[in-house]
# Entry
Amino acid sequence: MTIESISFKNSPAIRISTASGQEAVVLLHGAQVVSWKVNGEERLYLSEKADLAAGAAIRGGIPLCFPQFSTLGSLPMHGFARNKAWHPASTKGDTQGTSAVLELSETPETRALWPHNFKAALTVSLTDTTLAVQLGITNTGNAPLSFTTALHTYFRVKDISEVAIDGLKDTRYHDKVANLADQTEPRDTVRFSEQTDRVYYDASPDLTLHDGSSRIAIHADAMPDTVVWNPWVERARDMIDLPDDGYKYMVCIEAGCIGQPVTLDAGQSWKGGQTLKA
Ligand code: TA6
# Structure
């Protein structure tokens, strides 16, 4: 098991790997996981046009939306955590796996956007078959704070038309594309043939992503909602940091706390996350 500081496309990062050669890379920028390789196969999608410059939002991997998901508030889209430089805090390697913890706290800049003191810790843990990402938030201020959050996970897929997600049947969802009243998912299996942007509320914590013959099991902890997103042809064309055909090779399945914001009193802490099993 090794944990080393590396430069990933000129951006400071931590690479964690297991004795059998499985590996993950997490950038200090946004504490964003940008690579997870199992048996040499990359399981996360990172756009070849992603902008890794300081302050930018990186298209791919696992951007962390915090303290706001999407436009559900007055902050910039998906909050500020994904645009900030995080600090490496600690690492651990034992027979259970290897993990790295990155931290972020308030700065005058974040307080100008969101007037709260907080400590965020993102733990990335790797075993031979799993990648776990856990977010911990502590309210270090004197007044209550509330946030929404999501692990905006871009899975790499071979062909979006062969992708299926199991586990969402009978779940209430909001369709951001149609923008109608909430509906209930009637399908056993969600498939893709058009732009899809949905928030499923109180979803099952266990979903399965099928990509042709390969599978990833997704388990969420204390993140009750699930976002499913694929921009499809036209939206992909409009995105400067995604190749025109990029939508074919990605699907976002995002564990989050969206419908019901998390509220923490002064001194209180919260933890939530997801485990991906190849
Ligand atoms: O999580 C889905 C979503 O909120 C979509 O509405 C979509 O536009 C996307 O995230 C990407 O957001 P970004 O700010 O990274 O371009």
